[in-house]
UniProtKB/TrEMBL annotation:
Name of a matching Pfam family: P4Ha_N
Protein keywords: Dioxygenase, Endoplasmic reticulum, Glycoprotein, Iron, Metal-binding, Oxidoreductase, Vitamin C
EC number: 1.14.11.2
Major location (coarse): endoplasmic reticulum
Reported function: Catalyzes the post-translational formation of 4-hydroxyproline in -Xaa-Pro-Gly- sequences in collagens and other proteins.
Gene Ontology molecular-function annotations: iron ion binding; L-ascorbic acid binding; procollagen-proline 4-dioxygenase activity
Classification via InterPro entries: Oxoglu/Fe-dep_dioxygenase_dom, P4H_N, P4HA-like, Pro_4_hyd_alph, Pro_4_hyd_alph_FE2OG_OXY, TPR-like_helical_dom_sf, TPR_rpt
Name of the protein: procollagen-proline 4-dioxygenase
Amino acid sequence: MRHRRQLYFHISLLIVLLWNGSIVHSQDEQEKSISTSIAGMEELLMSEKILINTVERFADELQAKVNALKNLVTVLRNENDKALQSPEKYLHNPLNGFSLIRRMHYDWNNIELYMTKPVGESYIEVIRKYRHEMPSTNDLFEASEAIHRLQTTYDMRIDDVVRGVLNGKQYDVKLSAVDCYFMGLHLSAKKNYYLSGFWLYNAIETYQNSDYNTIIDYGLDKPNALYAEALEKQLRYNDALIVIKKALSFRPDDADLTNRKNQIELQAKTYNGPPISYSKPGPSAYEEGCRGKYANKPSKLHCVYNTTTSAFLRLAPLKMEILNLEPYMVLFHDIISDQEISDLQNLAKPNLKRATVFNKSQGKSTIVEKRTSKFSWFQDNTSNTTIRLNQRIRDMTGFDILGSEMLQVMNYGLGGHYDTHFDYFDVPDTSDVVQLNGNRIATVLFYMTDVEQGGATVFPNLKTAVFPRKGTAVMWYNLDNKLEGDPLTLHAACPVIVGSKWVCNKWIRSKAQIFRKPCYNLFTTAIPTSLPVVSKMHSNACWITTFLLMLATLNSIDCMTDWEKSFSTSIAGMENLLLMESTLIASVQQFTEELEQKVRRLKSLLDELQTENQKGLDNTEEYLHNPLNGYALIRRMYYDWPNIELFMSEPINNAHVEVIQQLRPQMPSYADLSEACEAIYRLQITYGLDPADMVEGILNNKQYNVQMKPLDRYFMGYYLFGQEKYFHSAYWTYQAIMSHEDSDYNAIMDFGLEKVYALYGETLVKQNRVKDALVAIQHAFTLKPHDARLMQRRNAIELLVNTTTDEASEFLVPEADPYQLGCRGFYSNYISNLHCLYNRTAAPFLHLAPLKMEILQLDPYMVLYHDMISDNEIEELKNMARPDLKRATVYSDDNKQPIVVRTRTAKSTGIDEQISATTRRLNQRIMDMTGMDTEGSEALQIMNYGLGGHYDTHYDFFNVSSGLKVVKEGDRIATVLIYLSEVEQGGATVFPNIPTAVFPQKGSALVWYNLKNDLEGNWLTLHAACPVLVGSKWVANKWLRSKAQMFRRPCYK
């Protein structure tokens, strides 16, 4: 079964938040940091190749999806149109109601999966908007339980129910195979395997191969597998074996089904006993009443006009049918008008909530399965209708309703019922619920609708059943003359088979009847001509404010969210589902019409992606050495592929989207994209590059075979806008405008020219170029004339044009600082009196194998060694480092904790000097080169710089007191920096205060002293690693500590 896909966040909004510093990068994001290492980016190309192949296979299957969706829409539309012709009549039938809830809960979830990622975002958004309103698992459980309740209460055959025959009457409705399956699933979960088997058999018999079943992922393997389990639980192993083999024939590679078949096969061979026999229990008194067995019960009682209960009845007597004397029970006819019923229903519908039952042990009202309906309470003076109805209740009963509970209006939904119960509270007189106003002496129940089948009020102990008739009201006494509960009043509301049952009831409390009803003298068998008048009440009665209790109950129910939504417990609650489904069907229909265009767009997208990806795979090293390729790859993997996934999902074959989802953790994050943008900007500023050249692939006056796409340029502008670099943002955004073209690729990315113009307009506003900004925003508005936000911005900028007198901000390009001059190569021709030589004196070994040494500086002492490491040694160091590269850190200002900072963008790993023969040789070579001892020094650090990788100006020494942890072995007296790769452009090590620049040469090593002779830091050693412009920079460095040099180097001259 498919799992619901989580769609990506709103990309633009979060990028703005990120680049304005509103989102803090997690340590994990910083650690993954793809852009800070070329090595980390190489795998992205292969990942993208896999993704492209996935899209290609998806495109091949997409045409079949169009046909399936057309058939799906036809099926859904036919059923929904039929329902909307008369929603009330449609929903009166429980099978329609059940199918609707099951469809909305299960099918639409799968349809959404089938559609996502949408061709048109707005269509899927319609489904998502209604997601929280759709039936939950609890709704489906209750709907299934309702069908089961109807089937057992009214003793209906399951195959009749499936065919639409309810209580012997044929209806124009049938349960689908999926409906039957879910009924079987429900009953299996309740361990009712006998009845579950009947439902599952019907699920198998009614199944048809169809696009609808394909889309909702429903095949014959499912009902057969579950049917086999139901048979197995009944010890019918041979039958179960036949069925499980059928299930396996539909999914022969399913390991679970194979295991089940083997287990059942073994049980069939070893079990010789009989199957479990099932005998249907006889009907209970309650079920007999629901089935109409009491309807023709002979009675000596008769109908009268009640004229004596109140003085008003002499003018307007009430039609009263006496049903029972002990307990006293009467049925009033024509007691409430159609208009009054309509008023009550309209008052109730907006406030219907799940009905509750008083829990004796908890002392409060709770939701229970035995009562499935929704209700709403009304104060006696809520409206003229409620005022009249309360007065009528006084006239009908002769009771005072002071202190009684509010009017309660209820609606029963799918199989809605209320199991056998008493209305009175079976609690001591001292209990809070009866202490103030007494117990429920009488119940008045108004029937507000006719119910076609079912819904009777049954009194099993009296063998009396009252079936709903619109406009009637039944009234009975719950307490005997001693004010004790009468067990004969046990009653229930039978499940509604067909129809919508609305009732209104009033529970009358006993304390207010102190002068209305006597507490002694039993009724005689004589028919009373009027209700007895009370003279005195029992002196030991205790009372409580039921009104306050009910208010508290209502408040507590509000938090029961899952139960509260409960569609199946109210017909009124289900009517909106039909309208909702109609809206959803319209969305699917529009989606289907656009889906055919999706195939063409995908193929166009594939052509572009394959061309670019193959270019990278043909020469990965050269491709990724160019920062524009690296940036575009990261930006593409970060932004484009999530959009492609959204465009593809929900797939025909889950495996296609799952490939993307499996690779998602490896894709760039927001932090990666932010760093990539910053890297491109760093290169622009450090090397004085023109964005107009950069977008065309010209770097430092050298043309490369690459161009930045419009999206690349736009994101640069977007990022710089967030950094408040408005001049540069405008420059990049203008380049995006000039290169933008309508294409399927941009359409899939939801990248329209109006976005670029809108951003360009904002950058101009920030520079006080409001007239130019108005032109730009007008272009955006022309492209998207119904965009309210663009209209508001245009109006706001028009106002600025008319009111602003400030001149446009002038941007002056700053002079290059010493660091930037060094990176640009201005120090490479620096004239020096120093020279090259062979170093033979630093160690005895050098007498045999001297090192080529170029002296660069004397203060601070700085030399460059040539050919100090072989290609094989370099490759071995790289291979050791690659698996463990992590984001490079610097020590915090207090020199206590290494942290990740934006001033150092590289990845590194420390390698122990004893890990291999190569590292041991290299460590010895460093001692020979420097004449220093490496004991106590830091591990050899291997680093790789990625996209615009750099390390801003800094010192290697700590220059702090020796008491801190980082200098327990002394400060960093010297640095050995070994270049492990050539770098085509950029990547120099620059000392701006000297001024000196050393450009990477593979195999060379730079050594300099960080401390003066008094072991104080030498401020002339300020240095930086210039951004890598083109190439991959690998270095190894060793920081030598001062403490071990006690006998190697004097501390003063």
